[in-house]
Amino acid sequence: MTENAATLSPQGKKPKGETDSNGSGLYAAYHKVHPKKVSGLFRTLKNWAAIILLGIYVIGPWLRWDRGPGTPNQAILLDMEANRGYIFGIEIWPQEIYYLTGVLILGAIGLFFATALLGRVWCGFTCIQTVFTDVFVMVERLLEGDRNQRIKLDRGPMTAGKFVRKTIKIAIWTVISLITGWTWVIYFSDAPTATMELLRGDSTWGMMGFALLVAGFTLVLAGWAREQVCIYMCPWPRFQASMYDEDSLVVTYEAWRGEPRGYAKKDTAFTDRGHCVDCTLCVQACPTGIDIRDGSQLACIGCGLCIDACNTVMDRFGLPRNLIAYDSNNNMIARTKGEPTKYRFVRPRTIIYAVLLTVVMAVMAVGLGTRSRLEVNILHERSPLFVALSDGSIRNGYTFKILNMAASEENYVVSVEGIPGATLRVIGYAETDVPSVDLPVKKDTVGTFRIYVTAPTASLKSNSTDMSFKLVNKATQEVRLQGTLFAGPAK
Questions:
Q1: Distances in Å between the alpha carbon of 134 and those of 19, 141, 154, 421?
Q2: N or C: which terminus of the chain has fewer CB atoms within 10 Å of its end residue's CB?
Q3: Tens digits of per-residue pLDDT, 292-330?
């Protein structure tokens, strides 16, 4: 070991005896974390999580989905120009933004559920900050070596070799960040078209600027900020403890078995001492630089790399694994007493979260499955409210909007109900009073029509009479009644 990692704590604690520049000891100097490479179950899980998540992110905008002629064939697309959202076979319109609320609620409850079961498993394996930090550290390790080599390189003077390594590292980080930024942008426009425009130099400044903004954040947060984001910037650690209970599985140090700790050789007898050999590999492997032996801490992201590191040491000494383990508080107490342990995944807290998840998913599924592809909006003319015609009848004007969310042009038969003898005329479609009129609406568009309804005075009950527009889809025979008011003179 080249650094006494046992004297370091989560980024905020300095080596023993160190104070700030004023000697007051009120705040800590920053100490860069150089996580050591480890292998094991949790490292493998993290690798696969990163591969799957990054694969989905990068490949997502390039997937195609045939929606018919005249519609985008990108599987996942948030089309800002057309005000549409496409997710494979699902099309979301601006007025259906409440589905986004449902997705956010699902995400929140899902996060609470996962935390109640497995602690900060989200932070340790699937958080975007964790994934990109792992990728950047991998590049750094390939160019600068493992922990001890990186510490030595950082502490050494700036030589030509060091400059070249650092430059190449930052260049690779920058390329990864630029790919990340551009990938984010093409979720909002057709990926092949936008990329070809970029290669030809025809891309808009807005797209390039937004891509550079995302790339810049990726470079800074994953390249230099790293664990500082988890410890100081992310709000989740501040209230995650409220999601735990005594049966939540979190990364724990089995102090009853590990203490008293101390240095040991391979042939050391462990009959009168703890199993912890104070090698500090758990600290060296931690991406946030904490010592899990100090207990549960805000900076622990639950990645389990300290477990992998400790298990290799236990194997070396022929001791049982899982001195550091994913375990619950109740199981730790049971082990100290020599009692049997059990894992309680089904308990009131998790049942409530599971039920909430099921209900929200069911509501969204039913809503998507039964939603109408037709929406009607009617705006009554305010000035004047009505016009008295020479034959004594009354006329009202309406702005009539039909939103056709189907993938084909639809024709609707429109008539009036609720007022006997009422007729209508539509500018551009029916220039004389008729009982009904056919109105065509193109696919994925809003048809706007100017409608005038004329009614006999005898059919009006008061100065405000309830009436409805009846729409019948000529192809599907779907009927929609849209209520409104017909204004007339006071009686």
A1: 31, 10, 19, 74
A2: C
A3: 999 888 899 999 999 999 999 999 999 999 999 999 989
